[in-house]
Amino acid sequence: MTTAARLMHLGAFLMETGHHVAAWRHPDVQADAGTDFRAYAALASMAERACFDAIFVADSVAANVDDSATRAARSDRLDPLTLLPALAAVTARIGLIATATTTYNEPYHLARKFASLDHISGGRAGWNLVTSDNAAEARNFGRTEHVGHAERYARAREFHRVVTGLWDSWADDSFVRDKASGAYYDAATLRVLNHDGPHFSVAGPLNVPRPVQGWPVVVQAGASDAGRDLAAQTADVVFTAHARLDSAQAFYRDMKARAVAAGRAPGDLKIMPGLSVVVARTDDEARERFDALQALVDPVAGVAMLARMLGNFDLSGYPLDGPLPELPLTDSGQRSRQALLTALAGDERLTIRELVLRIAAGRGHVTVVGSATTVADLMQTWFESDAADGFNVMPAELPAGLDAFCSLVVPELQRRGLFRTAYTGRTLREHLGLQRPVRA
Amino acid sequence: MTTAARLMHLGAFLMETGHHVAAWRHPDVQADAGTDFRAYAALASMAERACFDAIFVADSVAANVDDSATRAARSDRLDPLTLLPALAAVTARIGLIATATTTYNEPYHLARKFASLDHISGGRAGWNLVTSDNAAEARNFGRTEHVGHAERYARAREFHRVVTGLWDSWADDSFVRDKASGAYYDAATLRVLNHDGPHFSVAGPLNVPRPVQGWPVVVQAGASDAGRDLAAQTADVVFTAHARLDSAQAFYRDMKARAVAAGRAPGDLKIMPGLSVVVARTDDEARERFDALQALVDPVAGVAMLARMLGNFDLSGYPLDGPLPELPLTDSGQRSRQALLTALAGDERLTIRELVLRIAAGRGHVTVVGSATTVADLMQTWFESDAADGFNVMPAELPAGLDAFCSLVVPELQRRGLFRTAYTGRTLREHLGLQRPVRA
Fold first, then answer.
1. How far apart (Å, rounded) are the C-alpha atoms in residues A115 and B84?
2. Of A66, A414, B348, B423, which is the most exposed, with the fewest CB atoms less than 10 Å away?
3. Is the dihedral of CA B402, B406, B409, B413 positive or negative?
4. Which helix (H) or strand (E) holds B130?
């Protein structure tokens, strides 16, 4: 491999027992792994041995307890910003990306927590900056309804400005700690933020030194116009959902163009689609594993998941073996996912049951089932045809699905010269090939 | 030692480079230890080898950056709720107590974080529930002044009710995760909180299973009448500051009586005064270590610390070698500390400089300087004369001060039958001899 080779970036998206809606029912799966730290520690170590750029953990600030939830493993999880510091202590090189919402947090708290995680991990922290779009979350924070789309994004933008301003409270060398003179920090280099905006009034400075990475890596997943603009201006990595190559290519082109329009280089913004994957030694064996998971899908749980992804419309009155009804455009954050799924159902004339099974593993992300060659072929095609700078890998079931990816697909990607064989950097920014922000 | 022996409880109060205001300047001290995870990990392991009940970490949601702060090591630290999960991963038995304010947090977030820490640590989480009383913190959360005393305590009380209600969202056996039937949880045992009060409206349920300890241990340190009542009704442990035995005894009697009045047994509430300590092989050697630290005190930093503890009065206009001026009663949360320090200065006719030196190590907590015998004698006296159920140990400098305590004082306490020689419990509640809360 020459030094000039462009390498793929890989995130391990760890979702409790696995991404497949029925994973927890699989005989190989530990059903309570979603709240078992040791299970997470084993997964993080596994991904680190395979040289993944990062692990990635989703979040929600509410339990899903509608009637169907009793049949789905999505009501309990660990807080990502409590889990990832613990994983930092048992890993050495892999990045640690936690989801945290701007809608129901205070920027001072999140700035501190990510700065602290960055220090504890030696520069491996990443923040998946999201907005919250559902009523269940709103009701845990003194509201009766979720915050509207435009308002959420205005708040998110200001939130990001405050957090990055707080990260820059101190210069990299502010803390001189000179024992002889008694000078602990150099006041001339201190910057008090004194932010006063429509959503936040935050004086600062942060009570944590400047993060090891300058700024922890910022990940976003917004697909709306406002979400894309915010990401193009402020994100380092965009996590995105596409079922097909052409859609991923269009998104990739659009995001790189928006980044350039925002005065950035295309390489400053890494595009990482989700990749739902079931891999085994042969295509047939992978298909058998996938079919075994599909056979465990509970229709009630599956339809409820579909309904949430379409924007919380009630589908219980429609026959499972009939078509998806026409739905009004959702006002929730699921608008782009709704469009993706509606198009998928229309293009292929899927019944509700077929659509549920189609998204059971990947929730609309491209799903590949096959041998290492099959999986690597798809990844290489997307990577080499301007659809992806890497992938957020979504194993259908854990830990076996991640283990199979690490032992089968990673070596294949390495043979093809598409993925690192050892870490060359120390920080998540270095893994991703991103500049360390200079304090302006 | 018989099984009936009453044993002392010990917390290791880890304050950055040590509790002495000049500790960071000592030649043996790593000046940047306050933001170095490895330094904390070494301290936690040291305390665990000595069978401490817990480590204890303070907090503030603001940096101290007044003019004097450039000369004091109190402007940078790690977020406790990010630090302690990482320490959970590198320890096995010791309790982990994080300070978190009720004034500028949301109960859903804190309930989740402590529940997650409790799961990650196998039942070792503790929450030092505090209120925030200063303007610097207020200005980081959209306010111009700090919240008044009565309002802070009303909010704290409601905050505690919401958090404990969220911890009880699920029964201990709600998550049945029955692979055969597809039932993930038992909806009949779920309790949706639907709290709607003056400060918070929180629907719940929590998206984390019931904590290992039922409820993580709750610690409080309020000394006002409202603070004492709240602690007597809701705390498991009270951390408290006393310079003299008689004051500690009066507090101990008062708190046990208030607990009984609240319908609890006296043993349900553990009273743990802070113990500022410098120990060495002989009294003379300890005095030399202490004197070396005292010689490093910067008057500017020392007077500023004193001023904060008196309620943020400006002392810069008063001569260092003159008496403490008469001060109006502070409206801040420092009222009891102000009373303690004013009495100390008056009783012993101390100058400002002498008072600064008197509190340089312990900020008003009893300070003992001497051999293991000297230290153990004081601890035994307080423990056996209704002044303390244990101590929150405050080493003057770290790591040497904690190391000396563990290698000299702990064996002496063990020889006297006053402290455990091995952990007998798994959880922090078990270490402290506290019942696991039954879900009502």
1. 15
2. B348
3. positive
4. strand B125-130
Domains of chain A with CATH codes: 9-277+366-432 (3.20.20.30), 298-359 (no CATH)
Q: How far apart are CA A165 and CA B187, in angstroms?
A: 45
Residue A154 identity: A
At residue B25, φ and ψ (nearest 5 deg) are: -85, -10
Contact A177 B73 (CB under 8 A): yes
Task: Read off the pLDDT of each residue in A226-242 and give the average, rounded to a whole number.
Answer: 96
Q: A210 and chain B: CB distance < 8 Å anywhere?
A: no
Beta strand A95-101 pairing with A125-130: parallel
DSSP for A332-377 reads STTHHHHHHHHHHHHHHT-BHHHHHHHHTTTTTSEEEEE-HHHHHH
For residue B2, give every residue at least 6 positions away whose Cβ sits within 8 Å of its Cβ, in sequence order, or none.
none
Give me the average pLDDT of each 10-residue run along chain B (440 residues).
76 95 95 97 98 97 84 88 98 98 97 98 98 92 87 96 98 96 94 97 97 98 92 97 95 98 97 98 98 94 88 86 89 80 91 93 94 98 98 97 98 98 98 96
Residue A144, token pair as written in the block: 């009766």
The pTM score is 0.97
Q: Which residues of chain B have a CB within 8 Å of the CB of A208?
A: 35, 76-79
- Residues of B with Cβ-Cβ distance to A142 under 8 angstroms: 200-202
Asked if the C-beta of B119 comes within 8 angstroms of chain A's C-beta atoms, the answer is yes
Is residue B301 less than 8 Å (CB to CB) from chain A? yes
- C-alpha to C-alpha distance for A60 and A141, rounded to whole angstroms: 13
Q: Using alpha carbons only, what angle is made at residue B183 by residues B179 and B187, rounded to the nearest 5 degrees?
A: 155
Best CA proximity match to B369, nearest among B280, B254, B278, B268 = B278
Nearest CA in chain A to B61: A207
Whether residue B202 and residue A37 make contact (CB cut-off 8 A), yes or no, is no
Q: Is residue A99 marked as binding?
A: yes
